[in-house]
Specification:
Helix content is 33%, strand content 21%. The protein has 232 residues and is of the alpha/beta class. The protein has two domains: 133 residues, Ribosomal protein L1/L10, rRNA-binding domain (Ribulose 1,5 Bisphosphate Carboxylase/Oxygenase, 2-Layer Sandwich); 84 residues, Rossmann fold, CATH 3.40.50. The chain starts with 5 loop residues before the first helix and ends with a helix.
Amino acid sequence: MPKRGKTYLAAKEKVEAGHRYTLSEALELVTSSARGKFDETVEAAVRLGVNPAHADQMVRGSVVLPNGLGKSVRVLVFAKGEKEKEAMDAGADYTGSDEYIEKIKGGWLEFDRVIATPDMMGNVGKLGKILGPRGLMPNPKVGTVTFDVAQAVRDVKAGKVEFRVEKAGIVHSPVGKVSFGPEKLMENIQALMEMIVKLKPATSKGTYIKGVAVSSTMGPGVRVDPLDLRNL
């Protein structure tokens, strides 16, 4: 078992084992305990009452966080003609078609998100083994395969996050930076939770939101009382 640093252990001492905090209390703990030499990312982990092994219980979506993520995002758009120009005008970092496909095949990965027009997916699909494992493959379910490339680029630049339930039934998603403070982080988490609830599968029975925890990059997880989230 790896050793934990003094900073982590000091932060963990402030968290009462087994206790479920209100979201406000949890975010106060997370932000006040962060001692990294950089602006740590805050993440939410939401445990759902679904079985991802069943296709009809897969929870996947995206949401534009009202306060963004606090970092710049490099966006690559696969498009041609007028759509390529629209993407550039909207703020895309890279736009094009076959030339970028070849660059990626050669090992180039200097981008954080990928958007594509539907007519480009035949060629972009050839990059599945490269983009798929990195979570970069465009997908219509999260709005990254679209002809409205301008809006897609603006959403990503504004702080749009994609999420997908993992095999263990947990959704992990960044919700901002420690420097945002509890209030802005709470607004972002509210937007995330509202979308997750909206995407509840019809076949999901029993308790849907089973557990929630928040943490910073270098800090321990702080459990949140799911009942408190109903008041958001």
